Amino acid sequence: MPGELPTNRATDGPADQPASGPTAGVEGVERRSLLRLGALLAAGGAAALVPAPVAHAATRGRGTDTVTTTYRGRAPHGNDQWVYVPFGVPAGVRRISVTTSHEAAAGILDLGVLGPSGFRGWSEGARSGFTLSGADATPGYVPGPVEPGGWSVILGPMVSAPGGMDWRVDVTLHHGDPLPQAPYDILPSAVVGRGPGWYRGDLHLHSVHSDGQRTVDEIVTDARREGLHFIATSDHNTSSTGVTWRGNVPTDLLVINAEEVTTRHGHWLAVGLPQGEWVDWRYGPANQGAFEGHARRVHSLGGLTIAAHPLTPAPGSFFEFGLDRVDALEVWNGPWTLDDAANIAAWHVMLCLGKRVAAVGNSDAHSPTDAVGRPHNVVRATSLSTPAVLDALRLGRSYAVESAAVTLDFTARAGNAVAGPGEELPLVLFDTVDVTLDVTGALDSIATLHTEWGIMAATAIDGSGTGRLRWRGWGKASLFARAEVRRPKPASTTLDQLVAITNPVWFHSARLPPYDVERRALFHTERRPDGSWSSMRPLPGAAGETGAFAGIHSAAAGMPDGSVVMLGIAPDNGLWLATARGARALQPWRRVPGPDGSAGFTVREADVAAFDDGTCQIVVTAMDGTTYHQQRGADGTLPGFRPVPGLAAGSRWGATKVSVAAMPDGSAQLLSYGTNGAMYHCVRERDGAWTAWGRPAGYNGSPAFSGPALAITGLPDGSAQVLAIGLDGIVYHQQRRADGSWTGFRPPRGVTTPTMGASAVGIAGMPDGSAQVVTVGLDGRVWHNVRNPDGSWTPFAPVPGPNSRDPFPAGQVHIAALRDGSAHVTAISAGRPR
Length: 834
Hints:
By secondary structure, the chain is mainly β. The chain contains five helices and 50 strands. It has four domains: 9-175, Sandwich (Jelly Rolls), CATH 2.60.120.380; 184-404, TIM Barrel, CATH 3.20.20; 405-514, Immunoglobulin-like, CATH 2.60.40; 517-829, Neuraminidase.
């Protein structure tokens, strides 16, 4: 009998029930068009169905207008499984109603349904039942004709109980007269009269059509209240949201149809789908090419693919399909959490490898207490239209903000050329690049500028919420520049809060860069006491790494026995340590563990200083800005990092840059750019006590000094010398006398100019009271000079490269003094021209 199945049949696909009767048409929009993708599933997707034993109770109501059949089964322990309950629908059925029940303590039971033409609805675990007909449907389910033929209830058991989970499905078929069809309105592809400009929008919103609690009308109202210009409704695994607009399409707000494709191996947003199009979710990384195939289909329909909250460590949420296989990453999802910080760190690494994947921020609002548009994206589009907005997002011509109160203006200039987020600035190798970030609406926050070399500049924004950050770089020394604004106020799982983040301005093509970012290596050379240089050579890599040590930052300290302790930060921000004498490594590289002993500790900056007793002190800034310190024993032991005290009692010091100097009395002096962008100085006494942080005055009467780079070194007379780069890109120097007073900053003369422009600096105090200085000049090459004990300077001269003739191109440089009057220079190469 139609609708009745044999007991204990293994269900590996829709039942082979003959269809009877033609399918009725739909008034208004033809609803069969919205099932085209589902038809592909019905034709071929059933091959992946998981068999499950099903037992049936007797069908009730035979011979009446309402017939109910009960199906029972049991799902084993596990999350990645699907169960299909086939049932037949004869001609004359006008409505299908389904109810389910299961052992709630055993897990969750997701629910959906397929019809003869494919997808007809999905509600995950948000509902235990649904009804659908040509006139209406439960939210999450597609209204339309009840076609005769084979249907299947889809169950997605996520079973935590080791013994499995019992479930029950009741399918009720309602016969009767034909019901009126329910046409839907087509969403306009543009808002009339809105040309080029910056537009605000939220791409990740849930309604009652999945597990949200707002209607689409309530979403529209809240979006208007937040000041948004566009939204995307992205309910989980259903197309029903797009086919239920009837008389309520807004004319002042662009509504983009979307779906959050919620697989058991990560979620992704398919944004810009035609209404009624549906994207399948029942696959994983083991289904070779499945994700790529669906992503290609989304692109063919004009849509955008976005990995949603990709590093959320919840079951099924961690994105396993490859972060570089989507158009964009949702690096900021709802209220700022540690997951979002991890997203940004992973995205930054991708940028450093030249991968142009855009970043977006969305609210992922579900409940009425989730604020729509917090965060949201600000997009520079040629019009307020779906194609223009999606094109701009795909190119990264956008930034994300915590609310509509925040506005950024982020530009890079070289000559007459100007570029913003997602754009490429045309440059020749040695052009001067001026990057500016203007911020409004970001009260009591800190703006930072990032390149692949780390944080290059920072500035504090006061209670007015308005501030400007400036940085000067050179040519193609960096691959990109991007900006962040954070508020140093704890959130639920972090020590700060993100206020805004930009996509990068690119300085050269990611596909054909002049230098290979992945081949940047750590080189070293020695300046002998007679002023001659040894050959510049790469340092060997860590265990299992062929060739030179690949890194983004280095530091070194000359030990009393003539060896050199070296620190290297790898491209994954791991901290490594080695000891060398000349070109020969005495001890191999080893990973330095974190404060809790973890092997995966990552840092932004690191420095090391050597003492007469054979110990050395290491300071680092972690990825969250916290500054840590430890003292390496004379025998090479590492006791572990401890946080450096902050300004207030019991607080930790936060910094963007840090440098340490060993003093003759056994104390250490620390120099740092705090998270407010200003330079600070403190002393760690010989007994381990810390003095309070003080702020040296800036240049030419300025109350503070800010910039992208700094270095400090101690001298035999108890004084210290500081070298730093200002926000104007110029090198400045000053001395801290043994009594603690400062001489004030002054710029040393450049190679052929009154001042020296640079992007990186290093300084080392020598046994004779002089100081040797190295910089990466605006030409991208390493330069060296000496400040004599009487305060005079030698001219800058180029440091020779590996062939002992040509100057050496680098992105970061450090110099360390040795007892015999020689100096050891480490530099991260800028790669080799292709």
